[in-house]
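Holo model, manganese (II) ion. Inputs:
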Amino acid sequence: MPKYCTMEAYRFSRERKSSGTVVDVSGVKVGGREIVIAAGPCSVESEEQLMDTAKGVIGAGAGIIRGGAFKPRTSPYSFQGLGKEGLGILKEAGRRFDVPIVTELMDTGLVELYSRDVDLIQVGARNSQNFDMLKRLGKQKRPVLLKNGTGTSVQEWLMSSEYVLSEGNSSVILCYRGAKSIEGATRFSMDMGAIAMARKLSHMLICVDPSHAAGRREFVAPMALAAIAAGADMLEIEVHNDPDKALSDREQQLSIGEFEELMNRARDVAKAVGRSIRKG
Ligand code: PEP
Ligand code: MN
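Output:
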């Protein structure tokens, strides 16, 4: 942290608030002993795909449905998401299954729409230092799920959260999604030390996204279980009703069966570290 500012000066700081942070996501409380699981596809692709997936993940115990409507893709020629139509499908799933929804905000101009329609507004890795977007999100009331940038430090990530907190919105959940490294075995490296550091410096809740870090289906479960052991309060996991046909992030999305298996193992690991998985 900059020398000119003591840690207590920051709203995210554990020196300012030692424990007890809870973020209410439309009735699903994140924080405390229970770990909340958000799950769903990388992208909303169709009504059938999302409803099938939502049914499967909620049946397995997920408490929040995820799905990308506006997608940040590296190539402009890749599937860009269904946009507002996708958001509509996600909203309908939230209503039908009576669970909150989380989806990524890509355009600061859509903050008003998202704050009306979305229970938990995700800021993705690419916008994690879009300070104008963060300030706008600080001026509205919906909780924010703030990912780390792929090349930002823990301190920079915490500073991004301060942009939201300092504008008056205290409902921020940090989401660790791995960072760039020289390792090529996984898509991004998941640094357990980064999670430990964020928990030391900040009272804010930590979600872990093992899917984007793993990049490969077979690594999602071990990384998710490690995240629980490292103290995660929430996990966000990509699940697809037919992963081999997914229009984005095909290699890393779990099938519903794989997700069910992961949830069973997650319950055991959570118990071993004095936590439990919230019943969805
Ligand atoms: C996502 O969760 O859909 C996503 C694009 O993640 P990230 O911003 O971490 O790449
Ligand atoms: Mn994805």
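The radius of gyration is 17 Å. The mean pLDDT is 97.
Archived with the compound record.
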